[in-house]
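As a warm-up, study this chain.
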Amino acid sequence: MKFKRLFVSSLILIMMMSVYGCGNVELTEEEEQLVVDYSVNAVINHDKNYGLKLMDVEIESETETVWISEKDTTSSEKNTEGSSNEQDQTTAFAVETDMNTVLKLSGIDVSYKSFKMCETYPEGESLNFVMNAVDGSNLIVIELNVTNTTDKDIKLDMINSDIKFKGIFNSQVKANCQTTMLNNAFNTYNGTIKANETKEMVLVFEASRKNLKSVSTIKLEISNGDITETVILKK
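Now compare it with the structure written out below.
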């Protein structure tokens, strides 16, 4: 496997040098690294002998977080003092954490819009870049609204940030966010959002159909430096 990675990396380097020799293509260091990361992931992920990487997809035991209010706790204590035949009745409710408290992007508001499960993204003709799922897998595309809430343009550089995303689907399947060359990929976006502008961006995940046939619930695990929070997007 180490040999394969070395071979792929060398091949990519040769291809990039060839491109530079044939034209006036100029890339920043961040863009060059993004090309390498995506290319390596694409080659390995589409290697039939390798399959979908375990590091990208994990199967977790079914878990459910329950929040109980102080009122419910009091009610539970009263029921405990009563007849032993009475069952403790509590009302559970989910608390949705605002992802902006974890992202900490000054002047930027990020909110969940919707999701789609597909084999190819985006769909259409004459596209510069298209993602195709590995055979037997689907892409899960989480759509976000990213809004500049100020009266000034904001430079947003997600490539060089410490922010990482993992999707948790149906409380069982956890998948790392994919590195892509999509212009609207939130995790690798590096550009300017104009004053009071809202851009539609996406986070793309991939999961085997065997492990994930449909999506009923979505949680987003966000890591930003020493902070890690799980946000409920769809419940």
